[in-house]
């Protein structure tokens, strides 16, 4: 009897250790840099971010003495960084690259909103004074358009990064940006419902908050 128990224990240890090794190898395979099935997404985002950042940087250097804004230069640099990380993600897909792209996309979206609000407020102020068609207002109209366009691109980048971090890149048909945004691994969003224990004998419930209000 003692020998059988020892054999059973050794068998259980061997089985558990093999399961642990298998789970560890699978997790390591997911953490290793992979090729993004939707490389087209990263290339499109990089093409959108990088030219916008470069054009905005040149425009701000030329017109900063007119606009006197402090947000355009920061926004343009963040757009350029997002474009660089988008091209990096198109080459390799790992969690650090996606996290960096997600962080700079959120920062770019924040700067786009700030630049948009600042330009809109200045345009309204000038229009109230009857100076809608001045040079300052025209420059801020262009900055406002830059903010709107980059906000849209940054928002799309955030969605793509979030879907990729949720293992949406593991879908078999991830050959287009649409499939990357729509399809994916939805098990991560599953939530186990909370169980409620009811004492039928005493006609009292244990976890339902409405029972506390009964007289």
UniProtKB/TrEMBL annotation:
Stated name of the protein: MARVEL domain-containing protein
Spans through the membrane: 36-58, 70-88, 100-121, 141-162
Give the species this sequence originates from.
Litomosoides sigmodontis
Q: Which UniProt keywords apply?
A: Membrane, Transmembrane, Transmembrane helix
């Amino acid at each position: 009897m003692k020998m059988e128990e020892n054999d059973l224990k050794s068998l259980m240890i061997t089985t558990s250790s093999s399961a642990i090794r298998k789970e560890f190898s699978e997790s390591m395979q997911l953490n290793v840099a992979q090729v993004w099935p939707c490389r087209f997404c990263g290339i499109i985002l990089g093409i959108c971010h990088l030219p916008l950042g470069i054009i905005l940087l040149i425009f701000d250097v030329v017109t900063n003495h007119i606009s006197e804004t402090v947000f355009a230069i920061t926004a343009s640099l963040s757009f350029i960084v997002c474009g660089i990380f988008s091209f990096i993600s198109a080459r390799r897909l790992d969690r650090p690259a996606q996290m960096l792209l997600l962080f700079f996309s959120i920062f770019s979206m924040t700067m786009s909103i700030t630049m948009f609000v600042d330009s809109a407020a200045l345009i309204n102020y000038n229009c109230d004074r009857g100076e809608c068609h001045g040079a300052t207002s025209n420059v801020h109209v262009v900055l406002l358009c830059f903010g709107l366009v980059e906000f849209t691109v940054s928002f799309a980048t955030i969605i793509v990064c979030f879907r990729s971090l949720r293992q949406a890149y593991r879908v078999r048909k991830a050959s287009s940006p649409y499939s990357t945004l729509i399809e994916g691994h939805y098990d991560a969003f599953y939530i186990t419902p909370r169980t409620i224990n009811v004492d039928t004998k005493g006609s009292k419930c244990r976890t339902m908050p409405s029972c506390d209000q009964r007289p």
